Amino acid sequence: MEILKGIKLIIFDFDGVIMDSEKLHYDKFCQVIGVHGEKLGWEEYKRKYLALSDHDCFMALFQDRGWSFNPDLEITGGKRILTQKLLDEMCREKEKLFKSAMNTELKPIPGTLAFIRWASLKYRLAIASGAIRPEIEEPLRQLGIFELFEVIVAAGDAAQGKPHPEPFLKALELVNKKNGISILPAESAVIEDSVHGVEGAKKAGMKCIALTTSYPAEMLKNADLTIERLNISC
Prior knowledge:
By secondary structure, the chain is an alpha/beta fold. The chain is built from 8 helices and 8 strands; from the N terminus they run βαααββααβαβαβαββ. The strands form 2 sheets. It has a 6-stranded parallel β-sheet, covered by helices on one side. Helix 1 packs across helix 4. It is globular and about 55 Å long. The relative contact order is 0.18.
């Protein structure tokens, strides 16, 4: 793979790169917001919210819908006010709904597992995702590839999510610290499926391979390479 020449670390996104889970996240997110009278189309979700953590996704959507955020208020009295209590409840409910569907509705992205096993023999591997840790670790264990990743940066591990570069830089920092080495951003490559993810990777000074599992190629044009699926001859 020419694009990986000089690369020492590959950082994978999770949803849409390792697991075919973006539509499942969307479905469960819609179930939760529907209880509160809100709706969301798939195209808008992709455009604005797909790369965000559950917390940031709920926060952004409700504020976009005109809700005010009052973290200290306990009861809204039916008004369009997003409290911290309500935000936490929605995150827990979405997590519960997603977890109940994981074992029956989640499948790996075609080509990715073989690529990961091949890459693990040549590169250090990490994950940087906006998903919560259990939603990453459980599928990885079921697929038998958990041990191939040295570091997992999940929701809450970085102060700022994608498109900020922090999740990728955090993964790099942890890999270096764990091994007592000094891999540079320019020696790192990111594999992403989202516009925000590609933006964050490039801001981090890393190469980026984009998969067209969630967005058309023209929306991922800032990546160094855009492909339909991973294979060892990309």
